[in-house]
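Researcher: Quick one. two chains, 226 residues in total.
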Amino acid sequence: DAGVTQSPTHLIKTRGQQVTLRCSPKSGHDTVSWYQQALGQGPQFIFQYYEEEERQRGNFPDRFSGHQFPNYSSELNVNALLLGDSALYLCASSHRTPVSEKLFFGSGTQLSVL
Amino acid sequence: RKEVEQDPGPFNVPEGATVAFNCTYSNSASQSFFWYRQDCRKEPKLLMSVYSSGNEDGRFTAQLNRASQYISLLIRDSKLSDSATYLCVVTSLSGGYNKLIFGAGTRLAVHP
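Model:
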């Protein structure tokens, strides 16, 4: 049983570019949450998707957008990249809500913006 | 003020020591509480949930004080393999849905 998978594992971009990160949830999970973790900080909630809709959102600008597909996989898109967007981006999957069950994280995508 | 605040660390302790981490949260409406462990450059993994009555899992004991909005994690008989960052996590209700709010983490280094 595959856990949460993310791709790519590492990515290097330049300022102003756009990036798309991908996530496949654990089998049986239907909810995907995205987090940004800067060096030395805890993960910061970006947004959560359920039934192909953004269910809630953290304090991130509109440059950050996402999508969930019918097979529950998800994408995170970031436009007009800034140096400060350099971070580890984590995807977490759960069933319906992240509280009643254990939240499973993928190993993340390390994004470097130069 | 951050929603979840933790001891900054790092904590450097010898094997066998007992170490305690503290965490405070600002949202009195938070319903669920967790400790996650994160190894360097890896994803966070759930260590244990935290209940009002306190709970224990082997060498790990977690306590919750709702009145003080305070959470703790006690590790007894530290092992080298306990070296990691420990993240305090609380839930935040928004728009009818819960999301997890992470603290910045406390780094633990256990040495021989």
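The two ends of chain A are 37 Å apart (CA to CA).
Researcher: Thanks, that's what I needed.
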